[in-house]
UniProtKB/TrEMBL annotation:
Part of a binding-protein-dependent transport system for a sugar. InterPro entries: Bact_solute-bd_prot1, SBP. Pfam families: SBP_bac_1. One of its GO terms (cellular component) is periplasmic space. This is Probable sugar-binding periplasmic protein. Residues 1-22 form the signal peptide. Its main location: periplasm. It comes from the Bacteria.
Amino acid sequence: MKTFKTCLTSIALSIACATASAGEVEVLHYWTSGGEAAAVNVLKQEMESAGHTWTDFAVAGGGGESAMTVLKSRAISGNPPSAAQIKGLDIQEWGELGFLTSLDDVAAAGNWDSLLPPVVSDVMKYDGHYVAVPVNVHRVNWLWANPEAFKKAGVDIPTTWEEMIASGPKLKAASIIPLAHGGQAWQDATTFEAIALAEGADFYRKAFVEHDEATLKGPTMVKVLTTFKQLRDLIDADSSGRDWNVATSMVINGQAAMQIMGDWAKGEFTAAGKKPGTDYVCVAAPGTAGMFTFNIDSLAMFTQSDDSRAQAQKDLAAMVMDPKFQETFNLNKGSIPARQGMDPTPFDACALASMDDFTLSAEKGTLVPSMAHGMSTSSRVQGAIYDVVTNYFNASDITAEQAAEKLARAVNASL
Ligand code: GAL
C-alpha cells in the first residue's frame, strides 16, 4: 500500500501544477489531540507541498467553544484568518454577517454537487452559495469499549442504557472506572443527546431541531434526564474539566471500560496503534443501533483582500475535496469522507460500519444532526441546552422534572 506521504505528494503535484502563484493560508482550528493533530498535519503538508505557506492557528479546547471565541475577536478586529473550522448552523450565522467568500467556482470545477449528498452540501452553502468545504462526516452516537476490561469484570458490553447502569458495580469491583467522561458542557451534551436519540429519531428531531416545547418538558425528556443523571454513578470523582482525549486514553489503557464519544475518539485509538475488534470495540451508543448522529467538520473561507491569499484559499478548498486527501485525513481523524464514492478498502471495520449506517439511516429517516456539535440548532440554543444539562448533571438539588421545565424555558428564550 502506498504510504501516506506518497499519496500526499501526488495530490500536491496535481495542485501545484494548477497553482499559478503561491500564497499564505492561516487556518483556525481546534484539532489539537494526537489523532486530530495527525489529521490536520495532512492538510498542512499538502498545502506546503503545493508551494503555499501554512500558518497554523490552533486553539485548544474540545468542542471548539474557545476557538469560536478567538475567531469572533479576530473577525471583529477586521483580521480574520483565511479559513476556520466552522460548521453546521454557525456557517449561516457567519454568512449572514458578510464575512465569508464564495467557493462556487471551486465547487463547480470540482463537481461538488455531484460528490456530496444534499445533507452535507446544504450545510456548506449560505444563500445558495458554497462558503465552506467539508472535510469529513463524524458519527457522534458511538460507545468505545475496552474488551479486556469487560472480560476482567465478567460483564457484557451494554446495548441498552439500563445494561450500562447495571454493569457499574461489577466493573467497579474489578477496580475499573465504568464510564470515562470529561466534565465539560459539550461532553455532557454529547452523552445527553445519545440518550435522547435512544427514544427515537422523531423524538430527537422534535426536541433539538423543532424545539417543540411539549417534547422538551414532556415525560419522555424526564425519562432521558433521569437516565442521564444515573450515569453519574459510573464516572470517577476526577472527571470535572477532563479533556475528552484524556478520557479516551483511560479506555485505551484499561483504566476505564467505555466512553460515549464521537468517532474523533477513534483517531486517538489509531494514534496509539490500537486495532478495532481486538484492542477496542466500537458499537452504537446504547439503544441507537442503525441510527446516525452526524457532525460534519468544515473549513469556512473568509474574504481576503490579498489576491495570493485568495488564490491559496481556493487551492485549499480544492485540496480538501481531493479523494486522496479525503482518504488520508479521515484515516487519521476517525471520521468517514464527506466525498461520496470513495474506495472503502483502506478503512477499518468501525469506519465501514459508519459508512453503511450513514447510508442506511438516511434511507430509514434515522439520520439526525448533532445538537451537541452545532448541526441541529443555533449556537444560542445549543448554549442554552448546554447550561441546563450540565448544571442538572452536576447539581444534587434539581429533579429531572425541574430540569425538563428549565430546558423548555431556556430553549424558548433563546429562539
Ligand atoms: C467536535 C469536532 C471534532 C473534534 C471534537 C473534539 O465538535 O467536530 O472534529 O474536534 O469536537 O474537539
